[in-house]
C-alpha cells in the first residue's frame, strides 16, 4: 500500500479534530483516527485482516454533519465547528460504516 499511518495528533488548541472519534464502527471494530504522511486525516480499521481502505476523515465528517443538519436544522445554525463533536455524540450512539461512505448505518440515542 505504501501508506504510512501515524497516530493521530490533536491540534495545538487541544480540541479534537476527529469529531467522529469513538463513533465509527467497522463491524464490531471501532475505527481509529489516523493521519498519513501528507497530513491527510483518516479513520482506519484496526483489524489488520480487514480490507477496508482508509476513510477520508473530512468526507465522512461532512456527510455525517449534513445528516445532522437535515434532522436538526435549527441547532445546526448555532453549532460552531468546534462544537460539532459534542453535538454529534449527544444524539448518536454509533455509526456503522458499510461497504462505502454512502452506506452509513446511524444508531441514534433514544
Ligand atoms: Zn474493518
Description:
- This protein has helices spanning 57-71, 73-78, 84-91; strands at 5-7, 24-26, 29-30, 32-36, 41-44, 55-56, 92-97, 104-108.
- The model has no long low-confidence stretch (mean pLDDT 87).
- It has one domain (5-108).
- It has three helices and eight strands; from the N terminus they run E-E-E-E-E-E-H-H-H-E-E.
- By secondary structure, the protein is α+β, with helices and mostly antiparallel strands.
- Strand 2 and strand 3 form a beta hairpin.
- Bound molecules: zinc ion (ZN).
- Zinc ion binds next to loops.
- Residues 26-27, 29, 45, 47, 50, 52 line the site of zinc ion (ZN).
The helix count comes to 3
Q: Identify the overall geometry.
A: globular
Report helical residue fraction: 25-40%
**What small molecules accompany the polymer chains?**
zinc ion
Q: How do the strands line up in the largest sheet?
A: 1-4-5-6
| Alpha-carbon distance between the two ends | 41 Å
Write the element-wise H/E pattern from the N-terminal end onward.
Answer: EEEEEEHHHEE
Strand content: 25-35%
Average pLDDT score: 87
- Strand count, sense and closure of the main sheet? 4 strands, antiparallel
Number of strands: 8
Low-confidence stretches: none
Determine the structural class based on helices, strands and strand pairing. alpha+beta
Query: How many domains make up the coordinates?
Result: 1
Radius of gyration based on Cα positions: 14 Å
Summarize this, please?
Helix content is 26%, strand content 27%. By secondary structure, the protein is an alpha+beta fold. The site of zinc ion has 7 residues, from loops.
Amino acid at each position: 500500500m505504501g501508506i504510512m499511518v501515524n497516530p493521530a495528533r490533536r491540534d495545538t488548541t487541544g480540541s479534537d479534530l476527529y469529531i467522529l472519534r469513538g463513533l465509527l464502527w467497522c463491524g464490531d471494530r471501532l475505527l481509529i483516527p489516523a493521519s498519513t504522511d501528507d497530513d491527510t486525516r483518516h479513520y482506519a480499521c484496526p483489524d489488520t485482516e480487514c480490507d477496508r481502505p482508509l476513510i477520508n476523515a473530512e468526507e465522512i465528517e461532512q456527510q455525517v454533519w449534513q445528516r445532522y443538519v437535515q434532522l436538526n436544522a435549527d441547532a445546526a445554525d448555532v453549532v460552531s465547528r468546534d462544537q460539532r463533536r459534542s453535538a454529534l455524540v449527544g444524539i448518536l450512539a454509533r455509526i456503522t460504516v458499510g461497504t462505502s461512505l454512502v452506506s452509513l448505518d446511524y444508531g441514534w440515542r433514544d
